[in-house]
Amino acid sequence: MTFPPLSASPLFSSSRLRRLRATAALRSMVRENVLSPSDLIWPVFVMDGTDTEEPIPSMPGVLRRTVDCIGASAKDAYALGIPAICIFPYTSMQHRTQDCALAWSPDNVANRAIRAIKDAVPDMAVMTDIALDPYNIDGHDGFVENGEIVNDRTVDALVKMALTQADCGADILGPSDMMDGRIGAIRSALESHAHPNVTILSYTAKYASAFYGPFRDAVGASAALNGDKKTYQMDPANSDEAMRLVARDLSEGADMIMVKPGMPYLDIVRRVKTEFGVPTFAYQVSGEYAMILAAVQNGWLDHDSVMMESLMAFKRAGADGVLTYFAPAAAKLLNG
Ligand code: PBG
User: Fold this and answer.
1) Looking at this predicted complex, what is its ipTM?
2) To test the ligand 1 pocket, which listed residue (130, 285, 323) has its Cβ within 8 A of the most ligand atoms?
3) Segments making up each domain of the chain, as ranges
4) 176 with 131: CB under 8 angstroms?
5) Mutation to probe ligand 1, out of 129, 135, 176 (largest number of atoms < 8 A from CB)
6) Which InterPro entries match (predicted)?
């Protein structure tokens, strides 16, 4: 059987889109998005002790480090072109209390890590996490009274945390607690305490997600957590609500917006970017990392290709940057 040439068909549009995919040079000329190490923020876990790095079983390849090791790791990351690092403290059960007082101590492990990194690499941006969960005996991001996570008393504590972190040299504060009114309260406290230039990257659209499981192992929160976080973190079914939260946080003084988790929520990233046009970040969370690594370890996925494809997807969705445990590996690959 013979066929007439395709171009003879009345339906042929002569737009052969494959022409621009034919060679690597052509593909690179028409590529719409580029990933660079400067798009990456590296989340790290810090703990008490000296000269120790320990693995986190549910996050293969990710380490928990003592504060004396973190400066050197930050320096390596900065040399790879990664502009920012985000600190998460591991707190054992015996340091957790009902009043969460350790949260605003300048000598807690997170605040010591801020100073260690600023000493080692002054030009690197240091980001923090603001929430009570690493210090709370209940494992919640806010104070628990009669089974309820209370809002306003929690905000007072978050403000104290924020001011201590700013005093220790943090460049970017990351309120991840999802209490109402915290951005405005933190912003006014920064203004009145001589920290007008400290930026806030608000965890604005943070969903009550099952993808945070490995992170809670990494920071020692899995055992502590009583119940779930659904009365403050968002319902995964909602998207309009995220837009209301973004408008609210921007009006209260947030400089940048975060969507979290990342890969299952790229539609939210796109909506934030399109509707608000503000610096928008996505967090490729622990469970997303664990999922990819588990498949890699089984030989089912190729590590480097899946890592890069997943990170490019954030850029395509409109993200200005990504918090990712892959940051050093991805930056190494990008640097060639
Ligand atoms: C805590 C916090 C969480 C993450 C970042 N900050 C966990 C949670 O809300 O339970 C999750 C990050 C990850 O899964 O990689 N406020």
Assistant:
1) 0.97
2) 285
3) 35-335
4) yes
5) 176
6) ALAD, ALAD_AS, Aldolase_TIM
Local confidence pLDDT in tens for the 336 residues of the chain = 788 888 888 888 778 899 999 999 999 999 999 999 999 999 999 999 999 999 999 999 999 999 999 999 999 999 999 999 999 999 888 999 999 999 999 999 999 999 999 999 999 999 999 999 999 999 999 999 999 999 999 999 999 999 999 999 999 999 999 999 999 999 999 999 999 999 999 999 999 999 999 998 888 777 778 899 999 999 999 999 999 999 999 999 999 999 999 999 999 999 999 999 999 999 999 999 999 999 999 999 999 999 999 999 999 999 999 999 999 999 999 999
Question: Which fold is adopted by the domain 35-335?
Answer: TIM Barrel (3.20.20)
Residue identified by tokens 């920071």 is 219
| CA atoms of 185 and 188, how far apart (whole Å) | 5
- Is residue 230 part of the annotated active site? The answer reads no
Distance CA 54, CA 65 (A): 7
Structural tokens at position 241: 């609500």
Residues lining ligand 1, Cβ inside 6 A? 129, 131, 133, 141, 176, 212, 215-216, 229, 285-286
